[in-house]
Design goal:
Elements lengths: L10 E8 L7 H14 L6 E5 L5 E5 L9 E8 L2 E6 L5 E7 L5 H8 L2 H8 L6 H18 L21 E2 L6 E4 L7 E8 L4 E7 L6 E5 L5 E6 L26
Parallel strand pairs: 1-10
Antiparallel strand pairs: 1-5, 2-3, 3-4, 4-5, 6-9, 7-8, 8-9, 10-11, 11-12
Length: 251
């Protein structure tokens, strides 16, 4: 983790780790590591709180209500936990494992008609993946705006999935994209931004790692391979969002 330095650019950092479902919880530790990296504070001085709209924020314990918090987001799927953090503004993340599912039936129930039509026109062999790309985009955007899927979040229109960042229809300066994780995973990241945002995805050793630099509206700026040893994913005791990082419980 020490090799993941803050670049000085607007960067959405994403950490991917295994989640066995028991103690200790990797998500809490990853959130604290994000705070150490991006706020430049020791672990003992970090707390997890909530900002406007209920969005989770890592802050310094001596300024728990101050303006210098670190927006973060957490997602879990079977055996996996993902944590995202961004100093420059709101962020949302969601991850799903690809699996057989009745994509059209689910879309007919939950998605707006235009998305159902788009999905029906997609190749049947990849339809489950396309459905999950739309689903994860909705989840990530909901987290970025602090609403989750409340208030008809599944009906919120999404752009066609993929890279680079895509503007969310009807939302000013709100973008969503799908950095590749490979394997059977679908990842979506959403940000509020008016300029370039890089995405740096660091995976657990043994899973590979990749950095994806993207500029909203301008295509992918770069894709760079990275050593799988450039980060580690330690674990921590579970706790409460308002607890100090050293005593966090499951999130």
């Amino acid at each position: 983790m020490g090799q993941l330095t803050a670049s000085g650019r607007d960067t959405a950092y994403v950490w991917v780790g295994r989640d066995t479902g028991g103690q200790p919880d990797p998500a809490a530790e990853l959130l604290c590591q994000a705070g150490r990296l991006l706020l430049d504070r020791p672990r003992a001085e970090l707390v997890l709180t909530h900002g406007p709209g209920g969005r989770p924020v890592v802050r310094a314990s001596d300024d728990p209500a101050g303006p210098c918090g670190l927006p973060v987001s957490v997602s879990r799927t079977a055996g996996l936990v993902v944590v995202a953090a961004r100093r420059a503004g709101a962020i949302g993340v969601d991850v799903e494992r690809v699996r057989p599912l009745p994509a059209l039936a689910l879309a007919r129930r939950w998605f707006p008609p235009a998305e159902l039509t788009w999905l029906a026109d997609r190749p049947e062999a990849g339809r489950a993946v396309d459905f999950l790309r739309l689903w994860t985009a909705k989840e990530a955007v909901g987290k970025a705006v602090g609403q989750g899927l409340r208030g008809g979040g599944l009906r919120r229109a999404m752009p066609p999935p993929g890279l680079p960042w895509r503007p969310v229809p009807g939302a000013e300066a709100l973008w969503v994209g799908h950095p590749e994780l490979g394997g059977d995973l679908v990842l979506a990241v959403a940000v509020h931004a008016t300029g370039q945002v890089d995405v740096e995805v660091a995976q657990r050793p043994g899973h590979g790692a990749v950095e994806v630099a993207q500029r909203p509206g301008h295509g992918a700026a770069a894709v760079r391979s990275a050593s799988v040893e450039r980060t580690s994913l330690p674990v921590v005791v579970r706790g409460n969002w308002s607890s100090r990082c050293s005593t966090l419980g499951r999130l």
